[in-house]
Amino acid sequence: MIKTIIVTEKDYLNFTDYVFRRLCAPQQKGGSGFLKNMIIWCILAIAFMFIFQIDSISLSSFHWPSAAIAVLPFVVFIIAYSSNMRKLRQSSTPNENGLMLGEKTIEFGTGGITEINPLGSCFYKWESVESVEDNNGDLYIFLDKLLALIIPASSFSSDIEKAELQAIVKKYV
C-alpha cells in the first residue's frame, strides 16, 4: 500500500500532546501528575493556615497576608512552569516542508516501511515498529518512544481505508 500524506503543524502539535500524555502518564493506578500535586499542596498550605488559627473561629482574625505569602511560591512556580512549557512547545516545532512537516509518501511493503519526502527517503524494518496508536482519527506508527510516522486523519478517504492500513501494519508487527 502506498499512501501520500501531508503533515501540518496542527497534526504535529496534536502528536506532541499525545506523546506527552503517553510519556507522563502515571505508571501505576491512582498516580497523579506533577501539576496536580502542586495544586493539592497549595490547598493544603491554606488549610494548615486555617487549622493553626482555629482558636479564633472568625475569618476576620485570619491573617491573610501570611496565607498569601505561603501560597505565593506555589503560584509563581505554576505560572513559570506553564510559561516554560509553552515556550518549549513553540521552539520545538519542526520546519515547514522539512523532514516532519509537509508532503510525503509512505510505502508499506513486506520488508518494512519506506518514507519518501522532498529532502530524502528512509526505510524502517518491521522490527522497528513498537506500536500503532490512534489519536482522534490520526494514526501514529511508533518506531521509538518519541519517533513516530504521523498519518493524519485527513489523509484517509474512509474508515475502511484506515482499517486496511492498520491491518497491514499489525500483520507485520
Based on the model shown, name its key terms.
45% helix, alpha+beta, 3-stranded antiparallel β-sheet, 173 residues
What features would you describe in this structure?
The protein is of the alpha+beta class and 173 residues long. 45% of the residues lie in helices and 23% in strands. It has helices spanning 9-24, 34-52, 64-91, 159-172; strands spanning 2-7, 102-108, 112-117, 120-125, 131-135, 138-142, 148-151. The strands form 2 sheets. A 4-stranded antiparallel sheet has the order 1-2-3-4. Strands 5-6-7 form a 3-stranded antiparallel sheet, sandwiched between helices. β5 and β6 (138-142) form a beta hairpin. α2 (34-52) runs antiparallel to α3 (64-91). The radius of gyration is 24 Å and the shape is elongated.
By helix and strand content, what is the structural category?
Answer: alpha+beta
What's the pLDDT, averaged over the residues? Answer: 83
Biggest beta sheet summary = 4 strands, antiparallel
Oligomer status: single chain
Q: What is the strand content?
A: 15-25%
Question: Quick recap of the structure?
Answer:
By secondary structure, this protein is of the alpha+beta class. The chain has four helices and seven strands.
List the helices and strands and how they pair.
Blueprint: E1 2-7, H1 9-24, H2 34-52, H3 64-91, E2 102-108, E3 112-117, E4 120-125, E5 131-135, E6 138-142, E7 148-151, H4 159-172
